[in-house]
Amino acid sequence: MPNETYGILLVSFSKHSHQQHFIPLYQAHPRLRIIGVADYPDIDPDLCTYNQQWAGQLGVPYSEDLDESIDDPAVDIVSVGCEIERRSALIVRAAEAGKHLWIDKFPGATLAESEASAVAVERTGVRAIIPGYAYGTLAQHTRQVLASGDLGTLLGVHVDVMFGKGWPRPITQRRAFVAPNGRWKYPDIKRELLTVGAYAVGLIQECLGPIRHVVGHAGAFFFPEHGAHGCDDFGTLTMTDADGRVATLCGGRIGTASHPQGGPSRAYLIGTRQSATIDAKRPALDAYLRDYSTGYDYQPDPKDPMQWHGGPPVPTVALSEDTAGLAAGLDDLVAAIDDDRPTRYGVRQARDLMEIILAGYRAVECNAAIDLPLEQKL
Amino acid sequence: MTIALSAHPALNPLVGQLTAALPIKSLYYPARRNPNTDLPFFSDLPAMLQATSPRVCAFLSPYADLHNDVRTCLQAGVAVLCAGPVPKANQPIATGGIHRGSPLFAKALQKRRDPSFAEPVYLRLVAGVQEPGLLPAWWAACGQLALASDLLDESPTQVHLCANRHGRAYQVVLTATAPSGASIQIVVAPQSAIAELTLLGRGGVISASAAHSGIALASAKGTQVVPDAATPPAELAWLRDFLEKENAPSEHSDNSGQALLSGLRRALRTRQPVLVTC
Questions:
Q1: Which one of A223, A226, A246 makes the best mutation probe of the B interface by having the most chain B beta carbons within 10 Å?
Q2: What three-state secondary structure class fits B14?
Q3: Of A221, A257, A369, the CB nearest to B272
């Protein structure tokens, strides 16, 4: 029924998710309507208040009874915006209730959780999407170049994705690297190789076959907070696929006002005949406005020092309104539900992405190349 | 002072630029192909040495018997400098370091040393090879690693090396951590024109791209970027520096180049990252 509208339940506005950024997309989409906001009953009081504020703003009910909310027949899609540690259980529960899924990045905090999410989605036949990786300008341009055949045989892909956010300072304490072991965030920081590097891994998945070997480095820091925790604010991975093709990436948070577009987002596709340099934020318009260059206070808001929810103005603005590809991803999800087909990037790919990143973290920890597949228990 | 060059025909434009500025009298390369140059060309090294009596021979391209030709030159009293390492060289010769003559490198180093840049955290280099084949890819990898070390003022002791090929098109990837903790990623691509540099520091980003630094030619099919010919090639300053220092070896051929070549062969064979001690 192509004219049917689908009801969306927004589960959590946790501060590490992009739920609030999805709302304009949902509201603008002619086939979607927001049904309600829900979350677990035992969440942080601040998050509960925030959830309620959003529910009030959207004019929809807020519920702490997740089961009841998910089972509501008016709900067709669950928008998963809870903390990474709670995502897998929520995904499994929603899939078993026959609800389709819009998942903000990772489907679990561990490989086992991610696998459980993938199995639940495959078993129930619901449609699920992780929209952050395969729909943006970088992926679209990459597909265009690969489809043209101009490169000849693809030898490798190299991706740099960085967020020009936060305020780097001298590293006063450099704790030894701490393996994540399922813990991806602290009150003041997030693991950035996971958070930002995932975009690069998503693109590499688009280009190469199954990854077989991974090397990782994460010994340098921009922020003393990360140094003190022994957690990456920046990292690099090098990997080879089953055919011996090579990919590298860097991902991290590199500090505000260090790049005209808020951080590089580039891919180098190396072919036998030609190589391509793709910039996710081009085509673009340069606007060097004196007031911004000389008078703007680039210091981050003390309430959001890592600028998780904002950033400074940039002098070079991308022409695309959808560089991240979220609107394109939403169209794909709706079409996948309509046509009963998989989305371009679903939970199985996201589970594989998590495996690559986990291998990278283990490679950093061991200072050695790690072979895939990993053990499921990780 | 007369100079002889040894260069693959792919470097003809460079040979032309060098010949216009220096007393280069002959060109040698161990191949039958006519290099299409105004210089007297020889495919036989002893014949070239006898005919033109050069004081210096600069080897700009690698090939299998390079070490024998280097030895022949040295035995004839001809000073030698090489654009890359020479396997099996049995005495010190000046090798590598061409990047030090590059205006881009000089400016990048100047900005890197600006206190506002603070400490380096990450360096990404993407560079091309002068011609297809394993040895040019190896030389390019060595050259980029040397550039990285000079730009960071420190050298990694180990690198992870990955490589693959299709026909004579090679891709080489080096990944390393410098003693300060800064990460290094180097990609060598089969195309000579590609050249990208991104250096991140706590104080900001230094970057350059050949795609944004050339001359844009617009046509009905689109825009093509061609390199400018006005900027002097780094090889010119490199050669001049060698001549001014009275042919003193500026850099000794050491084992790291050989280790990279062995690692490269192993990476091609195993199709997985190999750890190489520099």
A1: A246
A2: helix
A3: A369
Q: How many CA atoms lie within 13 A of A72 on its CB side?
A: 22
Give the CA dihedral A322, A323, A324, A326, nearest 10 degrees: 20
Residue A305: exposure state from Cβ atoms within 10 A (0-12, 13-18, ≥19): middle
* Helices B234-244 + B12-21 axis angle, to 10: 40
The 3-state DSSP class for residue A50 equals helix
Within 13 A of A324's CA, how many CA atoms are on the CB side? 13
Q: Tell me the three state secondary structure of residue A234.
A: strand
Look over chain A and give the mean of its residue pLDDT values, rounded to a whole number: 95
CA distance B35 to B28: 10
Q: How far A167 CA lies from chain B's nearest CA (Å)?
A: 9
Residue B107 pLDDT greater than 90, yes or no = yes
Spatial distance between the Cα atoms of B78 and B54, rounded to a whole number of angstroms: 7
ipTM of the complex: 0.94
Measure in Å the smallest separation between the Cα of A159 and chain B Cα atoms: 10
pLDDT tens by residue, A86-118: 999 999 999 999 999 999 999 999 999 999 999
State whether A240 and B271 contact (CB < 8 Å): yes
Nearest to A245 by CA among B142, B266, B275, B171: B171
Distance between CA atoms of residues A76 and B160, nearest Å:
48
Determine the Cα–Cα distance for residues B62 and B44; give it in Å rounded to an integer: 16
3-state DSSP assignment of residue A82: coil
Helix or strand or coil: residue A138?
Answer: helix
